[in-house]
Amino acid sequence: MSRRRWVTGDPGVVNTMDFSSLPRLGVVVPPENPTVEPEFTRLAGDIMRVYSSRFPLVVGEELQQVLHAWNVALPEILSNFGSLELDATVVACSASHYLLDPEGDRDFCDQLSGRLGFPVQSSTQAILACCASLGITELTLVSPYEPWLTELSRSFWEKAGITVDRVIPVPAGDRFDPYSVTTDKIVEEVSGGDIDDDGPLLFTGTGMFTLEALDQLSRRTDRVLLTSNLASVWWGLKVTALPHEESELHPLLRRLRPER
């Protein structure tokens, strides 16, 4: 059940120093993902608390079978939060939800939300919600994935009604490994294109560290810069309806205002 309680003398103001009163965002993470918790915590700052649970380690299977197994395991993984009262939860694994297509992904999240009594959202649906808020119908995809998974990602967005006008691959040296991509590599690959274009950039995948790269790129372009983790935190703040000053938000979240 959603907590919806803020400890403060003024009903319109949250005492952000009272950590126990802040919204609680659950997050489900692939077992070897090093990125989600630190990026969520950095983005959420002092206005939301983050609690994580991890998918099981699946050994000896191809990646597509692993992703399918995680979708099957997700209801049980969510139950591992036990009696911890959460206001919302994000499934921070884009790749497994690409397998479901947009409609199946949305239905799956709706079923989980109904079962648990609080909103459950995938990072992919969080991205779609953010794109809808910003009026995004076309974007450039920045992908650290293997080619087949990049193509699955492109197909997902296009089935959701978003045109992918270009794909920028971001390998980690001579292989594709989101967890090993460096900030310099991201900036190099994106800057190799036309950074002065005005189309949005979507950096897909929750495992690629992006915040430092986005900080550098945001100084050079007014393009919308969107990532799986950034959109997920944006959704978490939105769905918990936390009263806050804009100045409290991370600068990358402030860039996602519709009016810009």
Automatic annotation (TrEMBL):
<dbReference type="GO" id="GO:0016853">
    <property type="term" value="F:isomerase activity"/>
</dbReference>
<dbReference type="InterPro" id="IPR053714">
    <property type="entry name" value="Iso_Racemase_Enz_sf"/>
</dbReference>
<dbReference type="InterPro" id="IPR026286">
    <property type="entry name" value="MaiA/AMDase"/>
</dbReference>
<protein>
    <submittedName>
        <fullName>Maleate isomerase</fullName>
    </submittedName>
</protein>
<keyword id="KW-0413">Isomerase</keyword>
<dbReference type="Pfam" id="PF17645">
    <property type="entry name" value="Amdase"/>
</dbReference>
